Amino acid sequence: EKCIRRVQKTRELNSFITETLDIARSQASESQARQLSGSSLGILDGVPVAVKDNFSTLGVQTSCASAILKGYVPPYNATMVQRLLDQGAVMMGKTNLDEFAMGSGSLDSVYGPVRNPWKYTFQNYEANKQDDLNKQSLRFSNKGNSANHKNNIQSESIKNSDSTNGQNGSSGIPEDMDVSDTRSEECDWYVSGGSSGGSAVAVATGTAFAALGSDTGGSVRIPASYCGVVGFKPTYSLLSRYGLIPLVNSLDVPGILTKTVDDTVIMLNVLAGHDVHDSTTMTDPYKPVLAVDFPEKISLKGLHIGIPKEYHAPGLASDVLSAWDKAADLFEAHGATVSEVSLPHTRFSIVCYSILCACEVSSNMARYDGIEFGHRAQNADASTEALYAASRHEGFNDVVRGRILAGNYFLLNKNYDTYFIQAQKVRKLISEDFACVFSVGVDVLLTPTTLTGAPKYSWYKREDNRTRTEQQDVFTQPINMAGLPAVSVPASLSDEGVPIGLQFIGPMFSEQKLLTVARWFE
Ligand code: GLN
User: Fold this and answer.
1) CATH code for residues 2-271
2) Is CB count within 10 Å lower at the N or C end of the chain?
3) Residues 183, 149 contacting (CB under 8 angstroms)
4) Nearest C-alpha to atom 10 of ligand 1 is from which residue?
Protein backbone atom coordinates (compact mmCIF):
# COMPACT_ATOMS: atom_id res chain seq x y z
CA GLU A 1 0.00 0.00 0.00
CA LYS A 2 2.86 2.33 0.76
CA CYS A 3 4.41 1.78 -2.66
CA ILE A 4 1.00 2.21 -4.27
CA ARG A 5 0.64 5.57 -2.53
CA ARG A 6 4.03 6.57 -3.84
CA VAL A 7 2.98 5.65 -7.39
CA GLN A 8 -0.05 7.89 -6.97
CA LYS A 9 1.95 10.72 -5.45
CA THR A 10 4.67 10.77 -8.07
CA ARG A 11 2.51 10.66 -11.20
CA GLU A 12 3.88 14.05 -12.15
CA LEU A 13 7.22 12.41 -12.94
CA ASN A 14 5.54 10.26 -15.62
CA SER A 15 7.57 7.15 -14.82
CA PHE A 16 4.75 4.69 -15.53
CA ILE A 17 2.93 4.23 -18.82
CA THR A 18 0.57 1.65 -17.36
CA GLU A 19 -0.01 1.27 -13.64
CA THR A 20 -1.06 -2.24 -12.66
CA LEU A 21 -2.12 -1.40 -9.13
CA ASP A 22 -5.08 -3.80 -9.09
CA ILE A 23 -2.84 -6.63 -10.21
CA ALA A 24 -0.31 -5.54 -7.57
CA ARG A 25 -2.96 -5.58 -4.85
CA SER A 26 -4.12 -9.07 -5.73
CA GLN A 27 -0.56 -10.40 -6.07
CA ALA A 28 0.28 -8.85 -2.69
CA SER A 29 -2.73 -10.42 -1.00
CA GLU A 30 -1.90 -13.81 -2.52
CA SER A 31 1.58 -13.36 -1.13
CA GLN A 32 0.20 -12.43 2.27
CA ALA A 33 -2.02 -15.52 2.22
CA ARG A 34 1.03 -17.65 1.46
CA GLN A 35 2.87 -16.07 4.37
CA LEU A 36 -0.04 -16.61 6.76
CA SER A 37 -0.56 -20.20 5.74
CA GLY A 38 3.14 -20.89 6.15
CA SER A 39 3.57 -22.14 2.58
CA SER A 40 6.96 -21.79 1.00
CA LEU A 41 7.76 -18.32 -0.26
CA GLY A 42 9.68 -17.15 -3.29
CA ILE A 43 12.73 -15.00 -2.78
CA LEU A 44 10.81 -11.95 -4.04
CA ASP A 45 7.53 -12.80 -2.35
CA GLY A 46 5.56 -9.58 -1.86
CA VAL A 47 8.33 -7.35 -3.24
CA PRO A 48 7.05 -4.55 -5.51
CA VAL A 49 8.84 -4.40 -8.88
CA ALA A 50 8.42 -2.36 -12.06
CA VAL A 51 8.90 -3.49 -15.65
CA LYS A 52 10.04 -1.41 -18.63
CA ASP A 53 7.31 -1.24 -21.23
CA ASN A 54 9.31 -3.12 -23.85
CA PHE A 55 9.01 -6.44 -21.95
CA SER A 56 5.95 -8.41 -22.98
CA THR A 57 3.42 -8.84 -20.19
CA LEU A 58 0.52 -11.25 -20.42
CA GLY A 59 -2.76 -9.32 -20.54
CA VAL A 60 -1.10 -5.92 -19.92
CA GLN A 61 -0.46 -3.39 -22.70
CA THR A 62 3.15 -3.41 -23.95
CA SER A 63 3.66 -0.27 -26.00
CA CYS A 64 7.41 0.46 -26.26
CA ALA A 65 6.20 4.06 -25.74
CA SER A 66 5.17 4.08 -29.40
CA ALA A 67 1.88 4.95 -31.06
CA ILE A 68 2.29 1.91 -33.30
CA LEU A 69 1.89 -0.47 -30.34
CA LYS A 70 -0.79 1.50 -28.48
CA GLY A 71 -3.35 -1.04 -27.36
CA TYR A 72 -1.13 -4.07 -28.05
CA VAL A 73 -1.70 -6.67 -25.31
CA PRO A 74 0.72 -9.61 -25.50
CA PRO A 75 -0.56 -13.16 -25.03
CA TYR A 76 2.50 -14.19 -22.99
CA ASN A 77 5.07 -12.99 -20.46
CA ALA A 78 8.69 -12.28 -21.31
CA THR A 79 10.90 -14.82 -19.55
CA MET A 80 12.30 -12.05 -17.30
CA VAL A 81 8.81 -11.08 -16.18
CA GLN A 82 7.76 -14.70 -15.65
CA ARG A 83 10.84 -15.40 -13.52
CA LEU A 84 10.03 -12.43 -11.27
CA LEU A 85 6.42 -13.53 -10.90
CA ASP A 86 7.47 -17.13 -10.22
CA GLN A 87 9.38 -15.81 -7.21
CA GLY A 88 6.34 -13.96 -5.88
CA ALA A 89 7.15 -10.41 -7.08
CA VAL A 90 4.34 -7.85 -7.17
CA MET A 91 4.10 -5.90 -10.43
CA MET A 92 3.41 -2.19 -9.94
CA GLY A 93 3.31 -1.30 -13.61
CA LYS A 94 5.01 -0.80 -16.94
CA THR A 95 7.55 2.00 -17.05
CA ASN A 96 8.08 4.79 -19.54
CA LEU A 97 10.98 4.89 -22.02
CA ASP A 98 12.20 6.43 -25.25
CA GLU A 99 10.18 5.02 -28.15
CA PHE A 100 11.49 1.49 -28.84
CA ALA A 101 14.35 2.26 -26.41
CA MET A 102 15.97 4.64 -28.90
CA GLY A 103 17.41 7.50 -26.88
CA SER A 104 19.36 8.47 -23.78
CA GLY A 105 16.95 10.89 -22.13
CA SER A 106 13.50 9.25 -21.86
CA LEU A 107 12.10 12.31 -23.59
CA ASP A 108 11.04 10.71 -26.87
CA SER A 109 7.99 8.82 -25.63
CA VAL A 110 4.53 9.16 -27.11
CA TYR A 111 3.37 9.31 -23.46
CA GLY A 112 5.57 12.35 -22.71
CA PRO A 113 8.94 12.71 -21.00
CA VAL A 114 10.05 11.13 -17.73
CA ARG A 115 11.20 13.61 -15.06
CA ASN A 116 14.08 13.05 -12.68
CA PRO A 117 12.98 13.28 -9.03
CA TRP A 118 16.27 14.90 -7.99
CA LYS A 119 15.87 18.60 -7.20
CA TYR A 120 12.41 18.40 -8.66
CA THR A 121 10.04 21.00 -7.33
CA PHE A 122 6.81 19.15 -6.80
CA GLN A 123 3.65 21.09 -6.53
CA ASN A 124 2.63 21.27 -2.86
CA TYR A 125 5.98 19.84 -1.86
CA GLU A 126 7.64 21.56 1.04
CA ALA A 127 11.21 22.47 0.23
CA ASN A 128 12.65 21.04 3.44
CA LYS A 129 11.32 17.60 2.59
CA GLN A 130 13.28 17.53 -0.64
CA ASP A 131 16.39 16.10 0.98
CA ASP A 132 14.55 12.97 2.11
CA LEU A 133 13.98 12.06 -1.50
CA ASN A 134 17.63 12.50 -2.25
CA LYS A 135 18.97 10.13 0.38
CA GLN A 136 20.83 7.57 -1.64
CA SER A 137 24.17 5.88 -1.32
CA LEU A 138 26.70 8.45 -2.45
CA ARG A 139 30.29 7.63 -1.75
CA PHE A 140 31.59 11.14 -2.15
CA SER A 141 28.52 13.07 -1.28
CA ASN A 142 29.46 16.38 0.23
CA LYS A 143 25.88 16.76 1.27
CA GLY A 144 24.23 14.93 4.14
CA ASN A 145 25.60 12.31 6.42
CA SER A 146 26.65 9.04 4.91
CA ALA A 147 25.57 6.93 7.87
CA ASN A 148 22.08 8.27 7.34
CA HIS A 149 22.25 7.38 3.68
CA LYS A 150 23.09 3.83 4.56
CA ASN A 151 20.27 3.51 7.08
CA ASN A 152 17.81 4.91 4.65
CA ILE A 153 18.85 2.54 1.92
CA GLN A 154 18.94 -0.51 4.09
CA SER A 155 15.44 0.01 5.25
CA GLU A 156 14.47 0.40 1.61
CA SER A 157 16.22 -2.64 0.21
CA ILE A 158 14.89 -6.08 -0.64
CA LYS A 159 17.72 -7.67 1.29
CA ASN A 160 16.95 -5.96 4.57
CA SER A 161 13.23 -6.22 4.31
CA ASP A 162 12.70 -8.89 6.98
CA SER A 163 9.15 -9.74 6.02
CA THR A 164 9.98 -9.10 2.36
CA ASN A 165 6.66 -7.37 2.07
CA GLY A 166 8.11 -4.04 1.08
CA GLN A 167 6.24 -2.09 3.69
CA ASN A 168 8.93 -1.30 6.19
CA GLY A 169 11.37 1.53 6.08
CA SER A 170 11.10 5.23 5.60
CA SER A 171 9.84 6.54 2.35
CA GLY A 172 11.87 8.50 -0.15
CA ILE A 173 8.66 10.46 -0.67
CA PRO A 174 7.14 11.92 2.47
CA GLU A 175 3.76 10.43 3.28
CA ASP A 176 1.99 13.76 3.29
CA MET A 177 3.24 14.82 -0.09
CA ASP A 178 0.72 15.18 -2.85
CA VAL A 179 2.17 15.65 -6.28
CA SER A 180 -0.61 14.31 -8.43
CA ASP A 181 -1.40 17.67 -10.06
CA THR A 182 0.24 18.54 -13.33
CA ARG A 183 2.70 21.38 -13.40
CA SER A 184 2.99 24.09 -15.93
CA GLU A 185 5.23 23.29 -18.87
CA GLU A 186 7.54 26.29 -18.39
CA CYS A 187 9.04 24.84 -15.20
CA ASP A 188 12.41 23.27 -15.84
CA TRP A 189 13.58 19.93 -14.42
CA TYR A 190 16.41 17.44 -14.74
CA VAL A 191 16.32 14.70 -17.36
CA SER A 192 15.98 11.16 -15.97
CA GLY A 193 18.26 9.61 -18.59
CA GLY A 194 17.24 6.89 -20.93
CA SER A 195 15.98 4.88 -22.31
CA SER A 196 15.01 3.07 -19.08
CA GLY A 197 14.21 6.41 -17.37
CA GLY A 198 10.84 5.25 -16.02
CA SER A 199 12.43 2.24 -14.34
CA ALA A 200 15.20 4.36 -12.79
CA VAL A 201 12.68 6.87 -11.45
CA ALA A 202 10.43 4.08 -10.12
CA VAL A 203 13.34 2.79 -8.04
CA ALA A 204 14.64 6.24 -7.04
CA THR A 205 11.21 7.27 -5.73
CA GLY A 206 10.62 3.99 -3.92
CA THR A 207 7.54 3.01 -5.91
CA ALA A 208 9.31 -0.28 -6.63
CA PHE A 209 12.24 -2.00 -4.93
CA ALA A 210 13.67 -3.16 -8.24
CA ALA A 211 12.94 -2.62 -11.91
CA LEU A 212 13.68 -4.29 -15.21
CA GLY A 213 15.30 -2.19 -17.90
CA SER A 214 16.97 -3.00 -21.19
CA ASP A 215 20.47 -1.93 -22.19
CA THR A 216 21.58 -1.77 -25.82
CA GLY A 217 24.11 1.04 -25.54
CA GLY A 218 23.72 2.32 -21.99
CA SER A 219 19.98 2.51 -21.40
CA VAL A 220 20.13 1.02 -17.90
CA ARG A 221 23.40 2.55 -16.73
CA ILE A 222 22.75 6.12 -17.92
CA PRO A 223 19.39 6.64 -16.18
CA ALA A 224 20.76 4.86 -13.10
CA SER A 225 23.60 7.36 -13.02
CA TYR A 226 21.32 10.37 -13.50
CA CYS A 227 18.80 9.20 -10.89
CA GLY A 228 21.26 8.01 -8.22
CA VAL A 229 20.49 4.27 -8.30
CA VAL A 230 22.43 1.12 -9.20
CA GLY A 231 22.12 0.04 -12.86
CA PHE A 232 23.50 -3.31 -13.97
CA LYS A 233 24.03 -4.60 -17.51
CA PRO A 234 24.94 -8.32 -17.34
CA THR A 235 27.14 -10.27 -19.74
CA TYR A 236 25.35 -10.81 -23.07
CA SER A 237 23.62 -14.24 -22.96
CA LEU A 238 23.26 -14.42 -19.19
CA LEU A 239 19.67 -13.10 -19.23
CA SER A 240 17.00 -14.16 -21.69
CA ARG A 241 15.67 -11.74 -24.30
CA TYR A 242 12.57 -13.81 -24.97
CA GLY A 243 9.65 -11.38 -24.94
CA LEU A 244 11.89 -8.32 -24.81
CA ILE A 245 10.90 -6.35 -27.90
CA PRO A 246 14.19 -5.98 -29.78
CA LEU A 247 16.11 -2.85 -30.58
CA VAL A 248 19.45 -4.33 -31.68
CA ASN A 249 19.39 -8.10 -31.13
CA SER A 250 23.16 -8.46 -31.06
CA LEU A 251 23.56 -5.77 -28.36
CA ASP A 252 20.34 -5.91 -26.28
CA VAL A 253 20.45 -7.24 -22.74
CA PRO A 254 17.83 -7.09 -20.01
CA GLY A 255 19.18 -4.96 -17.17
CA ILE A 256 18.49 -4.49 -13.46
CA LEU A 257 17.86 -1.28 -11.50
CA THR A 258 17.86 -1.28 -7.71
CA LYS A 259 18.89 0.97 -4.84
CA THR A 260 21.75 -1.25 -3.70
CA VAL A 261 24.24 -3.70 -5.18
CA ASP A 262 22.95 -6.38 -2.78
CA ASP A 263 19.52 -6.06 -4.35
CA THR A 264 21.01 -6.32 -7.82
CA VAL A 265 22.57 -9.64 -6.77
CA ILE A 266 19.20 -10.91 -5.54
CA MET A 267 17.53 -9.92 -8.82
CA LEU A 268 20.34 -11.34 -10.95
CA ASN A 269 20.14 -14.72 -9.26
CA VAL A 270 16.40 -14.84 -9.92
CA LEU A 271 16.73 -13.83 -13.57
CA ALA A 272 19.91 -15.44 -14.91
CA GLY A 273 20.39 -18.69 -16.74
CA HIS A 274 19.49 -20.64 -19.84
CA ASP A 275 16.08 -20.21 -21.43
CA VAL A 276 14.79 -22.70 -23.99
CA HIS A 277 13.02 -19.79 -25.70
CA ASP A 278 16.23 -17.85 -26.37
CA SER A 279 18.92 -19.80 -28.18
CA THR A 280 21.48 -17.08 -27.45
CA THR A 281 21.34 -17.68 -23.69
CA MET A 282 24.22 -19.47 -22.01
CA THR A 283 23.90 -23.24 -21.86
CA ASP A 284 26.31 -23.88 -18.95
CA PRO A 285 24.49 -23.99 -15.63
CA TYR A 286 24.33 -20.55 -13.96
CA LYS A 287 26.42 -20.25 -10.82
CA PRO A 288 24.64 -17.81 -8.50
CA VAL A 289 26.56 -14.74 -7.41
CA LEU A 290 27.24 -14.81 -3.69
CA ALA A 291 26.13 -11.72 -1.80
CA VAL A 292 28.72 -9.90 0.28
CA ASP A 293 27.68 -9.91 3.90
CA PHE A 294 30.61 -7.97 5.29
CA PRO A 295 31.84 -5.46 2.69
CA GLU A 296 34.30 -4.06 5.20
CA LYS A 297 36.04 -7.43 5.15
CA ILE A 298 36.61 -7.43 1.38
CA SER A 299 40.32 -7.30 0.68
CA LEU A 300 41.45 -5.31 -2.31
CA LYS A 301 44.95 -6.81 -2.18
CA GLY A 302 45.80 -8.24 -5.58
CA LEU A 303 42.92 -6.44 -7.31
CA HIS A 304 44.02 -4.65 -10.47
CA ILE A 305 41.86 -1.70 -11.53
CA GLY A 306 42.36 -0.25 -15.02
CA ILE A 307 41.67 3.40 -15.88
CA PRO A 308 41.18 3.70 -19.66
CA LYS A 309 42.96 6.85 -20.77
CA GLU A 310 40.67 7.36 -23.78
CA TYR A 311 37.75 7.85 -21.38
CA HIS A 312 39.16 11.29 -20.59
CA ALA A 313 36.89 12.24 -23.45
CA PRO A 314 35.94 15.67 -24.81
CA GLY A 315 33.00 17.03 -22.83
CA LEU A 316 33.86 15.22 -19.59
CA ALA A 317 32.68 17.52 -16.80
CA SER A 318 35.13 18.51 -14.09
CA ASP A 319 32.86 17.26 -11.29
CA VAL A 320 32.63 13.83 -12.96
CA LEU A 321 36.38 13.75 -13.45
CA SER A 322 36.91 14.61 -9.80
CA ALA A 323 34.56 11.79 -8.64
CA TRP A 324 36.43 9.39 -10.93
CA ASP A 325 39.85 10.48 -9.60
CA LYS A 326 38.70 10.22 -6.00
CA ALA A 327 37.40 6.70 -6.60
CA ALA A 328 40.69 5.62 -8.16
CA ASP A 329 42.59 7.07 -5.17
CA LEU A 330 40.27 5.30 -2.76
CA PHE A 331 40.94 1.93 -4.37
CA GLU A 332 44.66 2.56 -4.34
CA ALA A 333 44.61 3.66 -0.70
CA HIS A 334 42.92 0.37 0.20
CA GLY A 335 45.51 -1.83 -1.46
CA ALA A 336 44.35 -2.24 -5.06
CA THR A 337 46.73 -1.65 -7.96
CA VAL A 338 45.39 1.15 -10.13
CA SER A 339 46.95 1.77 -13.51
CA GLU A 340 46.23 3.54 -16.75
CA VAL A 341 45.26 1.30 -19.68
CA SER A 342 44.44 1.97 -23.31
CA LEU A 343 41.29 1.12 -25.30
CA PRO A 344 42.38 2.78 -28.56
CA HIS A 345 39.23 2.15 -30.62
CA THR A 346 36.88 3.83 -28.13
CA ARG A 347 36.59 6.93 -30.30
CA PHE A 348 34.96 4.93 -33.10
CA SER A 349 32.30 3.43 -30.92
CA ILE A 350 29.52 6.04 -31.34
CA VAL A 351 29.67 6.00 -35.12
CA CYS A 352 30.08 2.22 -35.24
CA TYR A 353 27.09 1.76 -32.93
CA SER A 354 24.98 4.16 -35.00
CA ILE A 355 25.49 2.10 -38.14
CA LEU A 356 24.95 -1.31 -36.55
CA CYS A 357 21.94 -0.04 -34.62
CA ALA A 358 20.28 1.46 -37.71
CA CYS A 359 20.85 -1.72 -39.74
CA GLU A 360 19.29 -4.01 -37.14
CA VAL A 361 16.49 -1.50 -36.49
CA SER A 362 15.55 -1.37 -40.18
CA SER A 363 15.15 -5.12 -40.11
CA ASN A 364 13.42 -5.37 -36.71
CA MET A 365 10.88 -2.65 -37.42
CA ALA A 366 9.67 -4.36 -40.61
CA ARG A 367 7.22 -6.39 -38.52
CA TYR A 368 5.16 -3.28 -37.69
CA ASP A 369 3.08 -2.97 -40.78
CA GLY A 370 -0.33 -2.07 -39.37
CA ILE A 371 -1.61 -5.58 -40.07
CA GLU A 372 -0.66 -7.74 -37.11
CA PHE A 373 0.04 -5.39 -34.21
CA GLY A 374 -1.24 -2.14 -32.80
CA HIS A 375 -1.97 0.93 -34.86
CA ARG A 376 -3.59 0.76 -38.31
CA ALA A 377 -4.12 3.95 -40.32
CA GLN A 378 -7.68 4.84 -41.28
CA ASN A 379 -8.66 5.58 -44.88
CA ALA A 380 -5.51 4.08 -46.37
CA ASP A 381 -7.32 1.58 -48.53
CA ALA A 382 -5.79 2.49 -51.90
CA SER A 383 -3.42 -0.46 -51.60
CA THR A 384 -1.73 -2.65 -49.01
CA GLU A 385 1.42 -0.65 -49.64
CA ALA A 386 -0.41 2.61 -48.84
CA LEU A 387 -1.76 1.06 -45.65
CA TYR A 388 1.75 0.07 -44.55
CA ALA A 389 3.15 3.50 -45.33
CA ALA A 390 0.38 5.44 -43.61
CA SER A 391 0.37 3.20 -40.51
CA ARG A 392 4.14 3.41 -40.14
CA HIS A 393 4.20 7.15 -40.73
CA GLU A 394 1.55 7.73 -38.07
CA GLY A 395 2.89 5.07 -35.70
CA PHE A 396 6.63 5.84 -35.46
CA ASN A 397 8.28 9.03 -34.23
CA ASP A 398 10.96 10.79 -36.27
CA VAL A 399 13.84 9.11 -34.40
CA VAL A 400 12.56 5.64 -35.30
CA ARG A 401 11.77 6.62 -38.89
CA GLY A 402 15.22 8.20 -39.25
CA ARG A 403 16.94 5.02 -38.09
CA ILE A 404 14.85 2.82 -40.39
CA LEU A 405 15.80 5.01 -43.36
CA ALA A 406 19.49 5.13 -42.37
CA GLY A 407 19.58 1.36 -41.88
CA ASN A 408 18.07 0.72 -45.29
CA TYR A 409 20.63 3.06 -46.80
CA PHE A 410 23.57 1.32 -45.08
CA LEU A 411 22.27 -2.06 -46.21
CA LEU A 412 21.88 -1.14 -49.87
CA ASN A 413 23.98 -3.43 -52.07
CA LYS A 414 26.31 -0.60 -53.00
CA ASN A 415 26.81 0.53 -49.38
CA TYR A 416 26.83 -2.79 -47.56
CA ASP A 417 30.61 -3.27 -47.48
CA THR A 418 31.45 0.37 -46.84
CA TYR A 419 29.14 0.71 -43.85
CA PHE A 420 27.77 -2.51 -42.42
CA ILE A 421 30.77 -4.79 -42.95
CA GLN A 422 33.17 -2.03 -41.96
CA ALA A 423 31.21 -1.37 -38.75
CA GLN A 424 31.30 -5.10 -37.92
CA LYS A 425 35.08 -5.02 -38.26
CA VAL A 426 35.37 -1.96 -36.02
CA ARG A 427 33.11 -3.63 -33.49
CA LYS A 428 35.56 -6.54 -33.39
CA LEU A 429 38.46 -4.14 -32.77
CA ILE A 430 36.56 -2.51 -29.91
CA SER A 431 35.97 -5.96 -28.33
CA GLU A 432 39.60 -6.88 -28.80
CA ASP A 433 40.70 -3.72 -26.96
CA PHE A 434 38.91 -5.02 -23.86
CA ALA A 435 40.15 -8.60 -24.29
CA CYS A 436 43.69 -7.29 -24.55
CA VAL A 437 43.47 -5.25 -21.33
CA PHE A 438 41.88 -8.11 -19.38
CA SER A 439 44.44 -10.59 -20.69
CA VAL A 440 47.30 -8.69 -19.05
CA GLY A 441 45.82 -9.03 -15.59
CA VAL A 442 43.38 -6.12 -15.23
CA ASP A 443 40.40 -7.37 -13.21
CA VAL A 444 38.00 -4.47 -13.48
CA LEU A 445 37.90 -1.16 -15.36
CA LEU A 446 36.74 1.98 -13.57
CA THR A 447 35.19 4.75 -15.71
CA PRO A 448 32.55 7.45 -15.49
CA THR A 449 29.10 6.32 -16.63
CA THR A 450 28.26 9.60 -18.35
CA LEU A 451 30.09 12.76 -19.37
CA THR A 452 28.06 14.95 -17.01
CA GLY A 453 25.43 14.74 -14.30
CA ALA A 454 21.82 14.88 -15.49
CA PRO A 455 21.28 17.87 -17.77
CA LYS A 456 18.28 20.15 -17.48
CA TYR A 457 15.37 19.51 -19.83
CA SER A 458 15.67 22.95 -21.43
CA TRP A 459 19.33 22.28 -22.26
CA TYR A 460 18.70 18.79 -23.58
CA LYS A 461 15.95 19.87 -25.91
CA ARG A 462 17.92 22.63 -27.62
CA GLU A 463 18.62 21.60 -31.19
CA ASP A 464 22.31 22.50 -31.02
CA ASN A 465 22.75 20.17 -28.05
CA ARG A 466 21.22 17.17 -29.77
CA THR A 467 24.50 15.77 -31.06
CA ARG A 468 26.14 16.46 -27.71
CA THR A 469 23.50 14.33 -26.03
CA GLU A 470 24.32 11.46 -28.40
CA GLN A 471 27.88 11.63 -27.08
CA GLN A 472 26.60 10.72 -23.59
CA ASP A 473 26.77 7.05 -24.61
CA VAL A 474 30.50 7.19 -25.27
CA PHE A 475 31.36 5.28 -22.06
CA THR A 476 28.55 2.77 -22.28
CA GLN A 477 28.18 1.69 -25.91
CA PRO A 478 31.60 0.00 -26.27
CA ILE A 479 30.64 -2.39 -23.47
CA ASN A 480 27.58 -3.61 -25.37
CA MET A 481 29.68 -4.07 -28.46
CA ALA A 482 31.98 -6.36 -26.49
CA GLY A 483 29.11 -8.12 -24.64
CA LEU A 484 30.71 -7.38 -21.24
CA PRO A 485 29.08 -6.92 -17.83
CA ALA A 486 29.10 -3.39 -16.36
CA VAL A 487 27.46 -1.69 -13.42
CA SER A 488 26.86 1.98 -12.65
CA VAL A 489 27.02 2.83 -8.93
CA PRO A 490 26.08 6.21 -7.41
CA ALA A 491 29.27 7.99 -6.41
CA SER A 492 28.84 11.68 -5.89
CA LEU A 493 26.82 14.79 -6.52
CA SER A 494 27.48 17.13 -9.41
CA ASP A 495 28.15 20.83 -8.84
CA GLU A 496 24.43 21.32 -9.43
CA GLY A 497 23.55 18.75 -6.78
CA VAL A 498 22.36 15.88 -8.97
CA PRO A 499 23.88 12.37 -8.87
CA ILE A 500 26.98 11.19 -10.66
CA GLY A 501 27.52 7.47 -11.22
CA LEU A 502 30.73 5.60 -11.86
CA GLN A 503 30.94 2.49 -13.99
CA PHE A 504 32.76 -0.78 -13.29
CA ILE A 505 33.39 -3.09 -16.26
CA GLY A 506 34.59 -6.69 -16.10
CA PRO A 507 35.41 -9.54 -18.49
CA MET A 508 32.55 -11.77 -19.71
CA PHE A 509 30.93 -13.78 -16.90
CA SER A 510 32.91 -11.96 -14.18
CA GLU A 511 29.70 -10.96 -12.37
CA GLN A 512 30.91 -12.29 -9.02
CA LYS A 513 34.05 -10.18 -8.94
CA LEU A 514 32.46 -7.16 -10.59
CA LEU A 515 29.56 -6.94 -8.16
CA THR A 516 31.84 -7.58 -5.18
CA VAL A 517 34.01 -4.62 -6.19
CA ALA A 518 30.88 -2.50 -6.75
CA ARG A 519 29.58 -3.53 -3.32
CA TRP A 520 32.82 -2.52 -1.68
CA PHE A 521 32.70 0.86 -3.39
CA GLU A 522 29.01 1.55 -2.72
N1 GLN B 1 21.18 5.79 -26.73
C2 GLN B 1 21.33 4.59 -27.49
C3 GLN B 1 20.33 4.56 -28.61
O4 GLN B 1 19.57 5.48 -28.72
C5 GLN B 1 21.21 3.37 -26.61
C6 GLN B 1 19.83 3.07 -26.20
C7 GLN B 1 19.68 1.79 -25.42
O8 GLN B 1 20.60 1.33 -24.74
N9 GLN B 1 18.51 1.19 -25.53
O10 GLN B 1 20.30 3.65 -29.39
Assistant:
1) 3.90.1300.10
2) N
3) no
4) 102
Query: In the chain, which stretches have pLDDT less than 50?
Result: 124-138, 141-155, 162-185
Give me the active site residues, please: 52, 195, 219
Every domain of the chain and the residues it spans = 2-271
- What is the reported pLDDT for 123? 60
Choice from 460, 468, 473 to test ligand 1 binding pocket (greatest atom count within 8 A of CB):
473
Q: Which atom of ligand 1 is nearest to the CA of 196?
A: 9
**Alpha-carbon gap, residue 472 to 218, rounded angstroms:** 9
Cβ atoms of residues 39 and 82 within 8 Å: no
- Strands 210-215 vs 499-505: parallel, antiparallel or unpaired: unpaired
Atom of ligand 1 nearest to the CA of 399: 4
- Strand pairing class (48-52; 210-215): parallel
- How far is the centre of ligand 1, averaged over its atoms, from the C-alpha of 217 (Å)? 5
Please enumerate in sequence order all residues whose Cβ is within 8 A of that of 481, keeping only pairs 6 or more positions apart, or say none: 251, 349, 352, 353, 356, 427, 430, 431
Our mutation pick for probing the ligand 1 site, out of 247, 449, 480, counting the most ligand atoms within 8 A of Cβ, is 247
Task: Give the Cα separation of 91 and 25 in Å (integer).
Answer: 9
3-class state of residue 220 by DSSP: coil
Alpha-helical regions (H) of 61-103: 79-86
**Best probe residue, ligand 1, of 98, 449, 467 (max atoms within 8 Å of C-beta):** 98
Distance CA 296, CA 82 (A): 35
Residue 94 sits at the vertex; the CA angle it makes with 489 and 233, to the nearest 5 degrees, is 30
pLDDT tens profile 412-465: 999 999 999 999 999 999 999 999 999 999 999 999 999 999 999 988 887 666
16 strand-pairing partners:
95
Ligand 1 neighbours by CB, cut-off 6 Å? 101-104, 195, 214-219, 247, 357, 473
- Nearest atom in ligand 1 to the alpha carbon of residue 216 is 8
Tell me how far the alpha carbon of residue 430 lies from the centroid of ligand 1, in angstroms: 18
Say how many CA atoms lie within 13 Å of 363 toward its Cβ.
12
> Quick check: 393 and 435 in contact, CB under 8 A?
no
For residue 195, say if its preceding peptide bond is cis, omega within 30 degrees of 0: yes
Nearest CA to ligand 1 atom 5: 217
How many C-beta neighbours within 10 Å does residue 340 have?
10
Q: What is the pLDDT of residues 28-76, one digit of tens each?
A: 999 999 999 999 999 999 999 999 999 999 999 999 999 999 999 999 9
Phi-psi region of 518 (alpha: psi -120 to 50; beta: other; left: phi over 0): alpha
Instruction: Give residue 255 CA to ligand 1 midpoint distance, Å.
Output: 13
DSSP state of 311: G
pLDDT of residue 382: 82
